[in-house]
Amino acid sequence: MLYGVIFIFIGITKIARYFVSKGNNEFYNYDWIYGIIAIIIGIITIFYTGTIFTVLRIIIGVWIIYSSLVRVSFGMKLKKVEDRSWKVVIALAILMLIFGIYMVFNTNAVLLTIGAVIIAYAVMDLIESIIFVKDINKIF
Description:
The protein is mainly alpha-helical and 140 residues long. Helices cover 81% and strands 0% of the residues.
Protein backbone atom coordinates (compact mmCIF):
# COMPACT_ATOMS: atom_id res chain seq x y z
CA MET A 1 0.00 0.00 0.00
CA LEU A 2 2.87 2.37 0.81
CA TYR A 3 4.31 1.89 -2.69
CA GLY A 4 0.99 2.86 -4.22
CA VAL A 5 0.81 6.06 -2.22
CA ILE A 6 4.40 6.89 -3.18
CA PHE A 7 3.66 6.37 -6.88
CA ILE A 8 0.55 8.54 -6.65
CA PHE A 9 2.51 11.28 -4.88
CA ILE A 10 5.23 11.13 -7.55
CA GLY A 11 2.56 11.26 -10.25
CA ILE A 12 0.89 14.32 -8.76
CA THR A 13 4.29 15.99 -8.39
CA LYS A 14 5.22 15.26 -12.01
CA ILE A 15 1.90 16.59 -13.33
CA ALA A 16 2.24 19.73 -11.20
CA ARG A 17 5.80 20.24 -12.44
CA TYR A 18 4.61 19.90 -16.03
CA PHE A 19 2.01 22.64 -15.64
CA VAL A 20 4.41 24.91 -13.75
CA SER A 21 7.06 24.65 -16.49
CA LYS A 22 4.66 24.47 -19.45
CA GLY A 23 5.93 26.63 -22.28
CA ASN A 24 9.54 26.45 -21.07
CA ASN A 25 11.92 23.79 -22.34
CA GLU A 26 9.17 21.54 -23.68
CA PHE A 27 11.73 19.68 -25.79
CA TYR A 28 12.42 17.30 -22.92
CA ASN A 29 9.31 17.68 -20.77
CA TYR A 30 7.44 14.40 -20.49
CA ASP A 31 6.36 15.00 -16.89
CA TRP A 32 2.62 14.82 -17.59
CA ILE A 33 3.03 11.38 -19.18
CA TYR A 34 5.18 10.19 -16.26
CA GLY A 35 2.66 11.65 -13.84
CA ILE A 36 -0.37 9.92 -15.35
CA ILE A 37 1.46 6.60 -15.54
CA ALA A 38 2.72 6.96 -11.96
CA ILE A 39 -0.80 7.62 -10.68
CA ILE A 40 -2.16 4.60 -12.57
CA ILE A 41 0.68 2.47 -11.22
CA GLY A 42 -0.05 3.74 -7.72
CA ILE A 43 -3.72 2.85 -7.93
CA ILE A 44 -2.96 -0.61 -9.32
CA THR A 45 -0.35 -1.18 -6.61
CA ILE A 46 -2.82 -0.29 -3.86
CA PHE A 47 -5.32 -2.85 -5.13
CA TYR A 48 -2.73 -5.64 -5.50
CA THR A 49 -1.01 -5.45 -2.11
CA GLY A 50 -1.15 -9.23 -1.70
CA THR A 51 1.02 -9.79 -4.75
CA ILE A 52 3.08 -6.63 -4.41
CA PHE A 53 6.41 -8.12 -5.45
CA THR A 54 5.09 -9.59 -8.69
CA VAL A 55 3.05 -6.53 -9.55
CA LEU A 56 5.85 -4.16 -8.53
CA ARG A 57 8.38 -6.10 -10.61
CA ILE A 58 6.16 -5.89 -13.69
CA ILE A 59 5.22 -2.25 -13.12
CA ILE A 60 8.83 -1.15 -12.69
CA GLY A 61 9.86 -3.19 -15.73
CA VAL A 62 7.16 -1.60 -17.89
CA TRP A 63 8.06 1.84 -16.54
CA ILE A 64 11.72 1.30 -17.45
CA ILE A 65 10.76 0.01 -20.93
CA TYR A 66 8.57 3.07 -21.52
CA SER A 67 11.24 5.42 -20.21
CA SER A 68 13.86 3.85 -22.45
CA LEU A 69 11.63 4.30 -25.51
CA VAL A 70 11.16 7.96 -24.60
CA ARG A 71 14.95 8.28 -24.39
CA VAL A 72 15.38 6.68 -27.81
CA SER A 73 13.04 9.37 -29.13
CA PHE A 74 15.13 12.02 -27.37
CA GLY A 75 18.30 10.53 -28.87
CA MET A 76 16.80 10.77 -32.34
CA LYS A 77 15.96 14.43 -31.69
CA LEU A 78 19.57 15.01 -30.65
CA LYS A 79 20.71 13.35 -33.86
CA LYS A 80 18.53 15.73 -35.89
CA VAL A 81 20.24 18.74 -34.32
CA GLU A 82 23.61 17.06 -34.95
CA ASP A 83 24.54 16.68 -31.31
CA ARG A 84 27.44 14.27 -30.75
CA SER A 85 25.92 12.77 -27.61
CA TRP A 86 22.98 11.13 -29.39
CA LYS A 87 24.86 7.81 -29.61
CA VAL A 88 25.44 7.73 -25.84
CA VAL A 89 21.80 8.57 -25.15
CA ILE A 90 20.57 5.79 -27.45
CA ALA A 91 23.10 3.29 -26.07
CA LEU A 92 21.92 4.04 -22.51
CA ALA A 93 18.30 3.77 -23.65
CA ILE A 94 18.96 0.34 -25.14
CA LEU A 95 20.63 -0.74 -21.91
CA MET A 96 17.59 0.50 -19.98
CA LEU A 97 15.32 -1.40 -22.38
CA ILE A 98 17.22 -4.62 -21.66
CA PHE A 99 16.87 -4.01 -17.90
CA GLY A 100 13.15 -3.37 -18.31
CA ILE A 101 12.57 -6.52 -20.32
CA TYR A 102 14.57 -8.49 -17.73
CA MET A 103 12.39 -7.10 -14.96
CA VAL A 104 9.13 -7.98 -16.73
CA PHE A 105 10.00 -11.50 -17.82
CA ASN A 106 12.27 -12.78 -15.04
CA THR A 107 9.92 -14.34 -12.50
CA ASN A 108 12.86 -14.91 -10.14
CA ALA A 109 13.65 -11.19 -9.95
CA VAL A 110 13.79 -10.65 -6.22
CA LEU A 111 14.03 -7.42 -4.29
CA LEU A 112 17.83 -7.25 -4.64
CA THR A 113 17.60 -7.49 -8.43
CA ILE A 114 14.87 -4.86 -8.51
CA GLY A 115 17.06 -2.58 -6.40
CA ALA A 116 20.10 -3.13 -8.64
CA VAL A 117 18.10 -2.37 -11.77
CA ILE A 118 16.61 0.78 -10.22
CA ILE A 119 20.08 2.00 -9.20
CA ALA A 120 21.43 1.32 -12.70
CA TYR A 121 18.43 3.15 -14.16
CA ALA A 122 19.07 6.16 -11.91
CA VAL A 123 22.76 6.28 -12.85
CA MET A 124 21.89 6.14 -16.56
CA ASP A 125 19.28 8.85 -16.07
CA LEU A 126 21.85 11.04 -14.32
CA ILE A 127 24.39 10.58 -17.12
CA GLU A 128 21.79 11.46 -19.72
CA SER A 129 20.73 14.55 -17.77
CA ILE A 130 24.33 15.74 -17.56
CA ILE A 131 24.68 15.32 -21.33
CA PHE A 132 21.43 17.21 -21.88
CA VAL A 133 22.40 20.12 -19.63
CA LYS A 134 25.86 20.32 -21.18
CA ASP A 135 24.43 20.60 -24.70
CA ILE A 136 21.23 22.54 -23.97
CA ASN A 137 22.33 25.59 -25.96
CA LYS A 138 22.67 23.51 -29.12
CA ILE A 139 19.14 22.20 -28.78
CA PHE A 140 17.29 25.44 -28.16
